[in-house]
Design brief:
The chain is mainly alpha-helical. The chain has one domain. 79% of the residues lie in helices and 0% in strands. It is built from three helices and no strands. The longest helix has 27 residues. The chain is rod-shaped.
Amino acid sequence: MREIRLTISTSLNKHKPGRFQLFLESKNKWWVVVTILGIFLLTYAFFLFVYFLAKSA
């Protein structure tokens, strides 16, 4: 009976990571890098487009 109580108390005291923390611990993050690089590339392309549009006008 004591062993069952010990098992239950240790299982209740375990820290359960949140979704974000679980995501940071995952090893498959390549799509995050691709998304960040895509955002930077699209931002740069947008400002370059605005620059050339303003220069030609």
